[in-house]
Amino acid sequence: MQRRHVLALAAGALAAPLVSFAQQPTKIPRIGFLHPAPPGGVPGMRLEAFRDALHELGYVEGKNVQLEVRWGNGEFERLSKLAAELVQLKVDVIVAATAPSEIAVHQATSTIPIVMPVSSDPVGDGLVASLAHPGGNITGLSVMAPELGEKRLQLLRQTFPEASRAVAVLWNPAYAGMRARFEQTKVAAPTLGLTVRSVEVQDSRDLALAFEAIVREHPEAVVLTDPFTLSQRTQLVEFAAEHRLPAIYENSDFVDVGGLMSYGPNISDLYRRAATYVDKILKGAKPADLPIEQPTKIELVLNMKAAKALGISFPASVLLRADKLIE
Predict the structure, then answer these.
(1) Comparing C-alpha atoms, which of 112, 139, 143, 141 is closest to residue 127?
(2) Residues with Cβ < 8 Å from 16, sequence gap 6 or more?
(3) Distances in Å between the alpha carbon of 182 and those of 143, 169, 194, 223?
(4) Rounded CA gap, 55 and 75, in Å?
(5) What is the rounded CA–CA span in Å between residue 263 and residue 302?
(6) What does the H/E/C string look like for the chain?
């Protein structure tokens, strides 16, 4: 009896640590999210699109995933510090929204996986070796597609065949990746008999000067999107309407606030797609092995009310191509 009692106690002692070990909580993966803009508005919508996609993939915040969100509030100089915070937290993957965040995070870590929802020119910016074989700790999606600059000019020319032969391209040279997108338009212009005027804007003072130059020359306009121009989209759209300026934008955020037309990828869809990259990485995939995707669906969005205010009608060739009409 005593021997059996001793054996039972010994078995219990051996089992106890096994039970304790089995009850250890599973580590919840942490996802860093860094955006250079202030929270709310369009950037906030992008984060929600990413969150919704995570939820569709089976992730529930606080249960099997945790998000560490950081906002740059439009101050690019803060991004390095915020990127370092995420690295110090030892998050499992970082979603770096737009080129300034991507560069800041890339400089902060060479080991933590990084996912880009909307990179411009990741090869030209030195972030990856190639789109097909990124080769490091960063992957994701790129909004670069060689034909987009030419297509926007074609749409302008089809809609305004009698307009000026000069095109003002409004863009921010301080924003990494933008030069490649500007060059897309510049290279395409001569094939359509157009000349390009570079109108550079980095802050509100530049914007006022840009408006003055455009009023003097009254060209057609292409507006390239970065955090600054996006934050000023209502002012840009109102300026174009006031001066009856033919303008096309890179994405529908501008058309949603009254802009005439846009041609480009659906950015919220790209953020949703970024969640699939995060999911693959959390399940063991290496960023170096995940090719960078380029947009496969490009949307043409037309604002019929804005067209009416300008006293124009979109030609049938343009209307037939539209993915969305805003009445």
Answers:
(1) 139
(2) none
(3) 13, 7, 14, 10
(4) 30
(5) 9
(6) CHHHHHHHHHHHHHHHHHHHHHCCCCCCCEEEEEECCCCCHHHHHHHHHHHHHHHHCCCCECCCEEEEEEECCCCHHHHHHHHHHHHHCCCCEEEECCHHHHHHHHHHCCCCCEEEEEECCCCCCCCCCCCCCCCCCEEEEECCCCCHHHHHHHHHHHHCCCCCCEEEEEECCCCCCHHHHHHHHHHHHHHHCCEEEEEECCCHHHHHHHHHHHHHHCCEEEECCCHHHHHCHHHHHHHHHHCCCCEEECCCHHHHCCCCEEEECCHHHHHHHHHHHHHHHHCCCCHHHCCCECCCCCEEEEEHHHHHHHCCCCCHHHHCCCCEEEC
pLDDT tens digits, 245-286 = 889 999 999 999 999 999 999 999 999 999 999 999 999 999
Residue with tokens 């939820």: 55
Under 8 Å CB-to-CB from 87, ≥6 apart: which residues? 94, 105, 108, 109, 112
Report residue 291: phi and psi, to 5°: -60, 145
Provide the token pair at 115: 């996912």
* Spatial contact of 183 and 205, defined as CB atoms under 8 Å apart: no
For the CA atoms of 314, 258, 42, 292, what is the dihedral angle to 10 degrees? 20
Short-list 88, 105, 85, CA closest to 97 = 105
pLDDT in tens, 192-210: 889 999 999 988 889 989 9
Which residues, at least 6 apart from 144, have a Cβ–Cβ distance to it below 8 Å? Answer: 119, 120, 121, 177, 180, 181, 184, 294
Q: Please give the model's pTM, rounded to 2 decimal places.
A: 0.86
